């Protein structure tokens, strides 16, 4: 992913949220935007209703945005690369791509063209189920748009081919000449409020802040000088690799902060067994989560309204947060807990405030160099913001890519790791609902949200329900090769025949007991979106 990160802002939106409302065409793929990102969803709906923006939705489910779409491509789960290759096949064959842009600003086009020639619309229809004529229509719409924005989320990334999917999205955007222009771009919608900020600050196993490589001598030497310690050149482990290490005994202790893997990670039986094998587990959180219940020590931390600092959102905007109420009991800001713990372990972190930490960030993080609390007092700033007089960057890659030329990747379609068979004849996909957030740690404490959506549901197509003798509201048992659970059936055509959908907010019906822990070989993200299951009356 390193080359992709350099070209496309390390998973950040290349463009800004406001630009969504003022573009000619939006492609929403693998994003249930109105439920997962309601503010962005509002922008999309307003663009369509008030500004005449065309909308193409690519999604296996009949999500709310389909009501606003000019065209809906309902692909089989896990066939995204084939669909993108099919769109590019038509664009190249019919000369709908931006030839001048491709010649001047990209490389690798010949290899891409050679691959996508193998994916004519009729062949893609066989793989994906998307009608060939709809693929042609979508390609002509995208190729004919002066400005086109692609929005995507975890419906694209949470596959064994997640990295390939993201590269394919980038291919499509560059082919249309849409990277580096206002109203265009590749725009991933991040799953949590400060995911972007955490990544920017080096909360990834292979990079320091601002995506400076751990294995690179220059970056490592810089941080050794800044922090006064020797640093390893060896990248660390991803979450799933850590769990495997705990299970095998090579990892003896774990410190989990603001994460609830006992609900959010795949194959929960394996996760629980792994955590129980640890010699020592520390959990730092605002509530006693399912994971915290397994901990030897729980460190109570302050929530967003109880501390000072900054968050960086999905459009790369750094924003101030301010303490509105005092933390309860013994709870402290995360940085205070970490600094105190480091001091007890022999490394002095003598910070007096979050502002002082921000001042260090500007010294060691090039894309944040021009950021100060004073500049953030009223409005946020979008990185890169390299100098104190820089206004921030509304959209990335204007005139040139970070790496020079944008690189096309020739990608072949690879099917999901687990497909239906006689024993497990249905496909399960997972996601969120509007009224709850992630593992429910916060929203399930809220009376209003719980009243609106009180329990987990198994969304199943009426055709499958009729065949299985299941009626609406009936308790059903869902089983995969890894586990089973019980929940209430909801008959709906939102799910296609042959597929079911469940959210992962409810520990009482923890869907990740079922999901497949197989990983994307590069991004190391699990295949949450596709696994084989069977459904029967409970």
Task: Summarize it.
With 538 residues, this protein is α/β, with parallel strands linked by helices.
Number of domains: 4
In which order are the strands of the major sheet placed? 16-20-17-19-18-23
Round the Cα radius of gyration to an integer and report it: 23 Å
Low-confidence stretches: 1-10
Count of alpha and pi helical runs: 19
Largest sheet, in brief, is: 6 strands, mixed, barrel
Query: CATH topology of the largest domain, anyone?
Result: Dimethylsulfoxide Reductase, domain 2
Helix content: 25-40%
Mean pLDDT: 93
Instruction: Identify the CATH class of the largest domain.
Output: Alpha Beta
Q: How many E strands?
A: 23
Structural class: alpha/beta
Q: Approximately how much beta-strand content do the residues carry?
A: 15-25%
CATH superfamily of the largest domain: Dimethylsulfoxide Reductase, domain 2
Secondary structure layout plus pairing:
Elements: H1 2-7, E1 25-29, H2 33-36, H3 38-51, E2 54-58, E3 71-73, H4 80-93, H5 99-105, E4 106-107, H6 109-116, H7 121-128, H8 132-144, E5 148-152, H9 154-157, H10 162-175, E6 186-188, H11 195-200, E7 207-208, E8 212-213, H12 217-227, H13 239-248, E9 253-257, H14 261-264, H15 268-277, E10 280-285, E11 297-300, E12 309-312, E13 317-321, H16 334-344, H17 354-364, E14 381-382, E15 406-407, E16 426-431, H18 447-452, E17 457-460, H19 462-468, E18 475-479, E19 484-491, E20 499-503, E21 516-519, E22 526-527, E23 531-537
Parallel strand pairs: 1-2, 1-5, 2-3, 4-15, 5-6, 9-10, 10-11, 16-20, 17-19
Antiparallel strand pairs: 7-8, 12-13, 13-14, 16-23, 17-20, 18-19, 18-23, 21-22
Helix pairs in contact: 4-7, 4-8, 4-10, 7-8, 13-15
